[in-house]
Amino acid sequence: MRSFISPAELDLKEENVISIKRISKATTGGRSMRFNCVVAIGDGSGHVGLGFGKAIDVASAINKAKEDAKKNIFKAPIINSTIPHELKIKYGSVRLILKPASPGTGIIAGGTVRAVLELVGVKNILSKITGSTNPVNVVKAVQKGLMELRDPLMVARDRGVNLKQLFS
């Protein structure tokens, strides 16, 4: 499992509100309305944070989600502006496939996945979502997938060999 990184040491210039939903709770006095928000922040060079917030008004929900995102920053390995290897992710009822793509392909992804991958700094990738397209679960599936990524240097270090032995 990767360690999370302090937001103070990064230049998190980009942020993206992925989803805002109005939710309600039935109480004895009637329905109480609140807002649920998903926010992603990133620096465009491999660091991204994803956060969730809930509050009575939209601005408070966004601020809570932004603060939560700053607490959950992690690093994803990016090689030649794409991911190092293919991923098949299952999170809840979300099925997500992420494939590396050659330069010039662009980000072929739905809105939720695209928003997160742009903040990570990925420029070329292919993706497909099947099953649920709930933005909260899709964001968590992308986070799970990005945290599972391993570049060749990490694999060599885990196996206790150098890069030449890894590829021979």
Overview of this protein structure:
With about 170 residues, the protein is α+β, with helices and mostly antiparallel strands. The chain folds into two domains: about 5-75, Double Stranded RNA Binding Domain (2-Layer Sandwich), CATH 3.30.160.20; about 75-150, Ribosomal Protein S5, domain 2 (2-Layer Sandwich). It has helices spanning about 60-70, 110-120, 135-150, 150-160, 165; strands at about 15-25, 30-40, 45-55, 75, 85-90, 95-100, 105-110, 125-130. The strands form two sheets. Strands 1-2-3-4 form a four-stranded antiparallel sheet. Strand 2 (about 30-40) and strand 3 form a beta hairpin. The longest helix is centred in the middle third of the chain and has 14 residues, at about 60-70. The protein is elongated. The protein starts with 13 loop residues before the first strand and ends with a helix. The model has no long low-confidence stretch (mean pLDDT about 90).
